[in-house]
Amino acid sequence: MLQRTLVREYYRQNVAFYLFLLLFCFGFMSGQEHRQFITVIMARPALLIFVGLTWLFHVLKSALFVHQILQEPEYAFLQENSISPTKYKWASLLALQLSLNLPFALYASAMVILGLMNQNYISVALVFSVNLVLLFAPVIWLNRRFLNFNKEIGITKYFKFQIIPKHRIFYFVRYLLNEKWVLYVSMKIYSVFFIVGAARIFPTDEYDFRLLGLGVFLGSVGLFPLGVEKINFESQKLAFERNLPFDRASKFTSIVLEAFVLIIPEIILIAYNWFDKVSLFQLAGSILYLLAALTFWYCIQYSSFASRKDFNSKMFFVAVLLFLMVMFKVPLLLSATIILMLSGFIVRRNYYNFELLQSDDK
Predict the structure, then answer these.
(1) Residues near 125 by Cβ (< 8 Å), separated by ≥ 6?
(2) Of 103, 192, 216, 358, which shows the fewest CB atoms inside 10 Å?
(3) What is the chain's alpha carbon radius of gyration, rounded to the nearest angstrom?
(4) Which residues contact 262 (CB under 8 A, 6 or more apart)?
(5) Alpha-carbon distance 137 to 144, whole Å?
(6) What is the pTM of this model?
(7) What's the rounded Cα separation, in Å, for the pair 158 and 311?
(8) Could you write out the DSSP letters of every residue in 161-202?
């Protein structure tokens, strides 16, 4: 039952992310390069810290999805899992987590095999142990989550971000920090990883300025779930706004400002890590590109296209197009301008025509 509901829905909602990951990892790296990459990591156990953190972020991402989807009324029937026979309950939770961990568990299996072939026994033991922890620890949490099906669980029960201003442009970030803090933190870590990582390898790659664009682009792709979350937030909390006398230009300006507030940490990191490496023109272009990308993820949700079942897969091809623009050295400032213009057009044409999703329709 959990496989047919939670697992299927998880991969359906994240199909664009995993397709892009497959393209990036296996479309631009050969099998021999993957083998060399794994060999280097397994030969240096300290590097497994970064691998383990990546796997941990993936587990947090899937745990957040489960936590959120169990709050939806249409999934209330899943609470029956908590009263199932003990063996069946734990077996179903274990199968659920194993299916959610499958993307990195398969890669971990390859690491173990190559580690054994190269006699890297310490690294093999570490990889095996980390994967066991990332399998059984979430299962224990899942059991608690099902037992407390209708109770608030998490840090938001104890701590509220009341210091954030109550202006309209801060509504969404207050909501994220109070209700969806795991999503917010995981998205920030994801984008920061690529922005800082690109800056660190910049001197080792013949100072290829595409690294800045690639780091910003990959960071912006990780922000896509925030667009989905924002339309859900507006559906539940701000549906009345469309009855107010706001023109479309004001709405678009508000969207851009909301996006700016959310990427302030990334802006600071871009400025700190890239200021002495690239020109001010390239630096401004990278910041505007990140702002434009998040604005686009917001605005595309207003189009009728977003309600189609193939929306996520189509967004994958959009991401591929943006990636190719970076690789062919299209200036980030030009790309950002085009994206912002397209976002403004979407809002102007669709804002007062699209249908907000109600809580029982999502």
Answers:
(1) none
(2) 358
(3) 22
(4) 172, 173, 176, 223, 226, 294
(5) 11
(6) 0.68
(7) 37
(8) -TTS--SGGGHHHHHHHHH-HHHHHHHHHHHHHHHHHHHHHG
Supply 344's token pair.
Answer: 């403004």
Burial (CB < 10 A; 0-12, 13-18, 19+), residue 198, is: buried
Read off the DSSP letter of residue 154.
Answer: S
Each residue of 300-349: pLDDT tens digit?
A: 988 877 777 777 777 778 888 888 888 888 899 999 999 999 999 999 88
Q: How far apart are CA 100 and CA 3, in angstroms?
A: 10
Q: What is the pLDDT of residue 351?
A: 79
DSSP 8-state secondary structure symbol assigned to residue 65: H
What does the angle CA 281 – CA 283 – CA 284 come to, to the nearest 5 degrees?
Answer: 65
CA proximity to 72, closest of 6, 131, 21:
6
- Which of 257, 194, 191 lies closest to 222, judged by CA? 191
How does pLDDT run across 216-274, given as a tens digit for each residue? Answer: 888 888 788 888 888 888 888 887 777 777 788 888 999 999 999 999 989 998 888 88
